[in-house]
Amino acid sequence: MSQAHEHKPFIPADSRIEEFTWPAVLVGAILGIVFGASSIYLVLKVGMTVSASIPVAVLSITLFRWASRLTGMRRATILENNIVQTTGSAGESIAFGVGVTMPALMILGYEMDMTRVMTVASLGGLLGVLMMIPLRRIFIVKQHGVLAYPEGTACADVLIVGEKGGSSAKTVFTGFGLAVLYKFLMSGLRLWKESPERLIPQFKGAAISGDVVPELLGVGYIIGTRISCVMVAGGILASWVLIPAIKLFGATAPEPLFPAVKLISEMEPGEVWKAYVLYIGAGAVAAGGIISLLQSFPTILASLKSGLSDIAAGAKSTVKAATTRTEDDMPNKVVLGGSLAIILAVAATPQLGLGFGLSGILGGILIVLFGFMFVTVSSRLTGEIGSSSNPVSGMTVATLLITCLFFLLLSKFDPTGGWMGKGARLSALTIAAIVCIAASNAGGTSQDLKTGFLVGATPKYQQWGLLVGTLSSAVVIGFTLLILNDAGTVYAKRDFPGVKAPVETLTRVERLKGPGSEADQADYKVWHLGEGEAAGIPAGKYLVDDAGTVRYLVDPGINGVESVRLDGTTVQKYNAPKARLMSLIIDGILTQKLPWGLVLLGVAIALVLELCGVPSLPFAVGVYLPLSASTPIFAGGVIRWLADRWAGKEGSDMSPGILFSSGYIAGGSIAGIAIALLSLAPKISESIDLSGALGAWTQSELTSLIAFGVISVLLLLVGAERWLREEPS
Question: Cβ distance 354 to 347 under 8 Å?
Fold first, then answer.
């Protein structure tokens, strides 16, 4: 076992200053809610999030400084600011886990109701925090100087040089305000198009497009030039190679080719993407996730072996009660009791599909087994390579694969087919979702505890803050997820002659909701269909009349395909690439009724990229997403390259460009959520829509490019330290 380097925290262990105060916890919870909501918006659009710890720390320092100047109250201590960033950073970690798993419920034929989402988010987040508590001494304390925890160390630097907080926070707030204003002008007043597109006449089926939004521009700047270039390359392959090739070779097909139900010659590029390229991209994402996990496997095994040996060594030694403030963790009985309570809560929640029977027992065992293993792995890998490179998606894919294969094995001994049915798919997703959220939150918790270790925080207060931040963020993330889905839901008329739904078994009744529903307020029964459950009918949620005739497809806002409501208005859809991947794995193993030829094409693409030395996972995400989503990310990466060279240095985690980009992300995402809410009130949306009054100018691609160019230039100036430059302390 590696020896810890001698450590002297910034605040000595024998010092007692204000730390776990109600203003710190409250501000942390509020900032956690803001960044959690913006993170769920981001993960639904592009399948990734960015760390919130440093922006939260900067905002905390500034908010408390402003409060001190306005009220005359004392200034917040460094340990109070640390509690704020600890409590506030939980939202981003949970948002990632929820966003990559929960939308798969709708693809599998279930409601994404509040109870399911909030229960899984809360219990998975709490499990990640609790299981990390006994690992703190092992990874944070004993491995100090060995495990770097880069984001945690950078955040400690921000707190320690808190006197720079004023100008740094100005950078974040300016980016936030500009992004909110930009989104309101674009998506609220509709002064320019959000997704300008131009077909290439000489290149049938290909188009140039881009979402001119500040949040994706900020993501591209933060993830850097290389990864953003790889992502847009995947988008170019999909839009300029795969779609034109399918149009070229399928133009003479005399009948629709599975899984499409329409002739290729009659399909628009977007329809080709939805029918064929989506499955190719999902296969590439699955292969990329598994490859990234396999590449990390030696490190994972070493981390797990080292972690378990450290735990065993700690168990054999006599651990004395903490004698100093900086060694005071929450007691292990809280960890054991809390973990057991979480497992019981999972079994007791009927919407999660486990229960107290055999499936519940097996599910609980798998959650504890995979939860402990991947929390340990995630915590250690975060210390070695940072949160951004932590392959949580790969761990989730591994959990899902093993769980589904285990169910498949059990089905051989169960002639009733219970382990292959619809309930088994829900159970498998529940297990994977809780493990995913736990592993994601454990990585973020590790970084927070490292920050606290460096600044001299009291561990138990940080752990309490993490629990508070987890619960408050989980509730809001659940609401945000459902709001975004409802805002993009479309009721599309459907007719399947000769098909009758089993109305005697359907108990749920709904009416049409939202814009365009006024003309039909009849009560319909809800018919949920998973993949392959009814011949000739795609998986989804349908509304049927009392005679069993299908009337409407309820197309969700997340991973849906219909973008025009009954009244002709359009909605924004969210692709959630990794949620599609989860459903693909479950259906692929348990139903075996997927277009495997398309999926395997995606797998082959990922293999080719890896053999060429290109990271396949970001490329695969680019293949899966429309080119319009990758283009602004690419623009952000190019601006990062230009800014670094103009400034003559590489940007750090707390550089002005990174902070300004964080403001872009938070502001653009929050404004996007607010505008999604406005779309549910069509009268308000119509009253502020100026596109009709201003005419063709608002529909011009040039207008969109000019507006996007303005925020791009501002980001370049900040990144190159030509505007909002840091003042010397």
Answer: yes
